[in-house]
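As the next step, I selected for study one protein, both as residues and as discrete backbone shape codes, as given directly below:
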Amino acid sequence: MSDSLDNRSKLKKYIDQLTDEDQQWFEVLAQYLIQKGWTADFPVSQFLAILQANQLHFSDENKPRRFLDDLEKNGIIEIKRGKARRPNRVTLKFYMYRGPSLEGCVPLDSPLYIKRSTDSICESYLEQSMKPGKTAAFLKIKAAKHTGKTSLLIRLQNHAKNKGWSVGYVDLESSQFSQNNQQLFDQVDSFLDRFREIVYQAYQIEGSSRSNLLDRLTSGVRCTSYLEQQVFTTSKKPQLLLIDGIDQIYGKEVQDEFLWLLRTWYEEKMKNLPGKTVKWPSIVIAYSTEPYSQSNFRESPLQNVGTSIDLDDFIADHLLGLSEIYGLEWCEGVENANKLMNLLAGHPYLVNLALYDMAIHNINIDDFQTQATLPPYKPFNNHLRRYLDILNNNEDLKQCFIKIIKGETIQFNDLIPENLAKLGLIKFQSGKPKVRCELYNIYFKNYLGL
């Protein structure tokens, strides 16, 4: 065990002593190999292409080859040299994430992104819908905050581009939906006109989206008619429209109008019917369930529309893979992963906070658990405090949650238990509500005086 720890310490020291340029080279190499499952056929020409794609230039054409040889010599990579003109196979043996703590969307090139089963499910639905004569897909990615919705959406965008599809991406949370420092979510006509313009721009169509011929139509009909005539029927490629931040319109004036517009598209434009050719794109929307749970909406125009995608949590294998990326020295890997699973139940955001904290402060899993489950509950205190504020501002949610923590029977004739699940505080197991993870149990027992 000590030999293994000593070896990892040597590898860390080697990486730390690389020049700034060499560290950049190693980072792009590692990110490529991690995305390929830590090993890939890798001729030197491939490395040259990756360096050039990342604007990393070199004057000596032999330097990339020497760089790879030096990494192999020091145990960072393993190279199995191909025979009979077959490419070399390179395996990454050691990596240590050196970036900032992960907050918000995981960048497309980040090694910290973990592909889950929902990634493959979404890709499969979309690929099936792009076949001739098929109904366009309508996917609804929904989950509580900090669970990876936007990160998945941008990877579906990248998947679509790699397939050669025509793809547009619209984020309702962006500054594009504000005017004179005021959001447009309480102005139906202005919002739908802006949405139409942004979709038009997202598909990179040249020219203005302005059309005086449609001014006499209602804003919803105007939006639909224009997109159909000027965007969706102009391309012969398979098409995909991604809409992020749907939760931004919850409780706003535009909510029902916009959601009914999407429902109308699904029912009238996206289905494959006899004598009708589908010209509408497949649509994927993503939204947080948290503001919805706090607004007491009992029904949505999007009920029974399309396919709901619930993001799954990390499993122990995901934690093991991430621990390697963070450079943690886990000799008892499976045992440590299980300990963290017991505490956090695979919550993606909390898992990354935990692993980053252990890596930065060089502490083991047992010391981390002690730290995380006692005041001030670092590094989770901000996350936990946000939930506590929500509960303290909603007495019904708070009292229901207290009963669940205590294991008492609750009534299911209202939306409160369901809203706690949408917040991400509980999960239903065999029809029974359970606190989402042990960390929440410990924290809220303390702060709710239980």
